[in-house]
Specification:
alpha/beta; 6-stranded parallel beta sheet; 3-stranded mixed beta sheet
Length: about 475
């Protein structure tokens, strides 16, 4: 097998796609925080695709806590294998990461942020990394934030370290900067801007004003299913003749929609298929309602029908037809027009993704935390449909299926995974009580007699597998 490194690129097996540029010419113009699997499968792959056109956008990757990624990739000169999953697996080497930093590297992160060659900061640190309160402000009671505010020069949190780097950039006169959140939450740029602004204001008012004037925080919407690295992937990469400490995998579909608000030069991500738009809100809403809403529907109905994975559920013609009809006939009409988004084509792409034979996405996992997901994925759509006078008989079926799912018998080892489980399970036999007392349903639906009638009727008819089949067959 060939051990990955710059020196062995030419010796790689013929079937492996390798970087189409000279890595010796690359300049780190992007600092990325949080180089986990999703970043390496998504943003780093976009960057890899543009470096042949412009080598100034390579990545310096910073891990705030764990050193695992740096330990795995440093001996490989930052190279790693990306497996693209479809009817056939395709392997490609990604070479866009040219520097790997960890907490042990002292002030290297701040120095890299202050470098004149750095023009963009990207981040995948999960929502928890933003340290926000329920109303979206900086949580000063968060232990990491409290420590950082007491000693900003020794900051360890993402927000604290980012502000420290921006402070150094201001002192050294390197000019403004763009900080682009790539985390999977709505309005991510606005959330990050508020957290950074609150933190900076708490330590240095002049710095806070400079950040407000010179730093841009565009939002972005990211999407691609990225299964965890497993033994099967490692074996398939090894069978291809590559010795890789940490290969990763994702579906072939990938999406990156970026608000066009940059402090300076804009990276040419559009050459790799990204979209620059004036507002990402419509794309976020489409993903939430069409992709996530359909996912939840497949999960709850599919589990009642005995299916295990999304692919299995999509192999059920009646269920697949029901979900597509709901997406096109009930959900899409609530979205309105979004420039740059072809809703019909987007629905088709989602359905193709659900049928991907190489992705094993468990319905039971998608079904977790329904009380937190359904208000955004389906209930908001139902409320808007009711307000517009449109029928909701089809839309209530997945909600009725969720209520039936809550009441399924469970051994102790398979307890309901939901933060509201203690409230939901005792109410699961009575949909009216669940609507009234669970805290999941919005006031508009709690007070809507027609919605409640439709939900109770759907629930009553879905007491058996045959009843579930009858419901989706009649409405599909």
């Amino acid at each position: 097998m060939t051990v990955l490194s710059n020196a062995t690129l030419s010796a790689l097996p013929m079937g492996v796609s390798r970087p189409g540029y000279d890595r010796a010419t690359l300049v780190p113009g992007i600092v990325h925080v949080g180089p986990g699997a999703f970043h390496r499968a998504h943003q780093a792959a976009y960057v890899d695709a543009i470096l042949g056109d412009d080598p100034r956008w390579a990545i310096s990757a910073m891990a705030l806590n764990s050193t695992d990624v740096a330990d795995a990739l440093r001996p490989q000169d930052g190279l790693y294998t990306l497996a693209l999953l479809g009817e056939e697996m395709r392997l490609q080497l990604v070479g866009s990461i040219v520097e790997l930093l960890t907490r042990g590297d002292g002030d290297a992160f701040a120095r890299r942020l202050a470098a004149p060659t750095t023009r963009l900061v990207t981040a995948t640190v999960t929502e928890k990394g933003y340290c926000l309160t329920a109303d979206g402000g900086l949580d000063r009671d968060n232990p990491a934030i409290a420590r950082d505010l007491a000693d900003p020069a020794a900051a360890t949190s993402f927000v604290g370290r980012l502000v420290d780097g921006l402070s150094r950039r201001r002192r050294e006169g390197a000019g403004g900067l763009t900080v682009l959140s790539c985390d999977n939450l709505a309005g991510n740029g606005r959330r990050l801007a508020r957290a950074v602004g609150d933190y900076a204001a708490a330590i240095d008012g002049d710095l806070a004003r400079w950040i407000a004037d010179a730093v841009r925080f565009p939002s972005s919407m990211v999407d691609s299913i990225t299964p965890a690295t497993d033994d099967d992937l490692r074996a398939r990469v090894a069978a291809a003749g590559i010795e890789d400490a940490w290969p990763i995998q994702r579906e072939r579909f990938t999406q990156w929609v970026i608000e066009d608000d940059f402090a300076g030069e804009r990276p040419p991500f559009d050459l790799a298929g990204a979209q620059f738009v004036g507002d990402v809100t419509g794309f976020e809403e489409a993903k939430l309602r069409l992709l996530n809403g359909a996912h939840s529907s497949l999960a709850y109905i599919g589990l009642l029908l005995g299916h295990e994975t999304v692919r299995d559920a999509m192999g059920d013609p009646a269920l697949a037809r029901f979900v597509e009809t709901m997406m096109r006939g009930d959900i899409a009409p609530t979205l309105g027009e979004t420039p740059g988004l072809d809703t019909a084509a987007y629905v088709g792409a989602i359905l193709d993704r659900f049928r991907n034979p190489a992705i094993r996405h468990l319905l039971a996992q998608i079904a977790w935390d329904g009380s937190q997901k359904l208000p955004f994925r389906l209930l908001a759509t139902i409320a808007e449909a009711r307000a517009a006078g449109r029928p909701v008989d089809r839309l209530v079926v997945p909600i009725a299926a969720w209520i039936r799912f809550l009441a399924l018998p469970r051994p102790p080892a398979a307890a309901l995974v939901d933060p509201a489980a203690a409230t939901l399970v005792p109410l699961a036999g009575d949909p009216d009580a669940l609507v009234e007392r669970s805290g999941v349903f919005p006031p508009a639906l709690i007070g809507d007699a027609e919605f409640r009638r439709a939900l109770v009727a759907a629930h009553a008819g879905m007491a058996t597998v045959e009843g579930v089949r009858a419901a989706i067959g009649k409405l599909g």
